[in-house]
Amino acid sequence: MQENKLISWIQLIKTEGVGPVSFYKLLKQYGTAQEALTYLSTKKQVFSALQAKAEIKNAAKQNISIITFEDELYPRNLKELNDAPPILYLKGNVELLKYPVTLAIVGSRNASVNGRKMASHIAYDLTNADVLIISGMASGIDSAAHKGAMYAKNQDGPTIAVLGTGVDVCYPKENLELYDQIARQGLLISEYGLSTEPQASNFPRRNRIVSALAMGTLVVEASLNSGSLITARLALEQGKDVFAVPGSPIEGRSKGANKLIKEGAYLTENAEDILNTLSLNYNQTLKTYQNKSLQIKPLDNEKKQVINVQKENVETDDIQILNIIGRSGLDQDDLIRSLDQNAQSVMAKITELEIQDLILRKNGSFLTLTKQGLRQIS
């Protein structure tokens, strides 16, 4: 993408109140990001071109690549999301975005020793079988999966970490050594601008990228309220396979994974269970299964029709969401769980309601109604 066009894209997506869904709506309505910015500048202060240029210059100094939805390198399966990030920041080996066979491993931050060992061993075996491991670099299961993957292939295995911060920000801080190793050996990805510090709302949103980049998602230890279940749910909505490691029914950290198995997730005890499901085995070469693994599983027509119907019934959805949030407010994750709908659509609807000045976001993920929103339910 030409630099002037990239500047306008950065300006638009970083303008307050503009998220991925509204970004694409504005782009469709006005034809270019620059024209959309011209319109928005009459209503609010837009992110300045000087700041966007500084962002590009800062990224270049740190060997960080910036790609857009229109770039050839942008992952095809990520484009299937209706709220696909318009811009991705990349640090490390960008060629890993073309890796043909991928699996996400997610789970509890407060993981048990056995849970971490399981995640690490499975990641190690899968990486040696030429499956690329994707996770979120959080404490616990995520970190164990990244470490297991990088210990494979004679301690040179690749892995991808999708961050809920700027790609130049390490979170949690104790993962600095892991962050540096992934930057050298794998790839760090973020949709958030440089220097973006951790916010509670960023992490549930990054989960859609984790699940979209992978052919399937493995959950190792997760409570019933874990964000890992949202990742698994997103994977199902994207037509992907979901795997789960069973655990003791009296252990809180196992209840989420056990629930997924009851609902149809593949019971997983080792890497071979996953490889068999993906129609792979340890002896096959990358070339053998490359064509099959490159197949994308988009939403089928029936699911697309359901989503379209949900989008068309805007007023009903608005009132339902506003009533659930109520006068006392509600956390974003609790709203997603209580609606029991497509998680991507709910997050997109939250963005639209913010733009319409019906709801406000506090402390990252807590949603409250504005005066206008309160009038809608009174």
Structure description:
This protein has helices at 3-13, 20-30, 33-40, 49-61, 113-128, 141-155, 176-185, 202-213, 227-237, 255-262, 271-277, 286-293, 301-312, 314-325, 332-339, 343-355, 371-377; strands at 65-68, 87-92, 102-107, 132-135, 159-162, 187-190, 216-220, 241-245, 266-267, 330-331, 359-362, 366-369. With 378 residues, it is an alpha/beta fold. The protein has 3 domains: 1-61, no CATH class; 94-293, Rossmann fold (3-Layer(aba) Sandwich); 301-377, Arc Repressor Mutant, subunit A (Orthogonal Bundle), CATH 1.10.10. The strands form 2 sheets. The chain has a 9-stranded mixed β-sheet, sandwiched between helices. The chain has a 3-stranded antiparallel β-sheet with strand order 10-12-11. Strand 8, helix 10 (255-262) and strand 9 (266-267) form a beta-alpha-beta unit. Residues 280-314 have low confidence and may be disordered.
Brief write-up:
The protein has helices spanning 3-13, 20-30, 33-40, 49-61, 113-128, 141-155, 176-185, 202-213, 227-237, 255-262, 271-277, 286-293, 301-312, 314-325, 332-339, 343-355, 371-377, and strands at 65-68, 87-92, 102-107, 132-135, 159-162, 187-190, 216-220, 241-245, 266-267, 330-331, 359-362, 366-369.
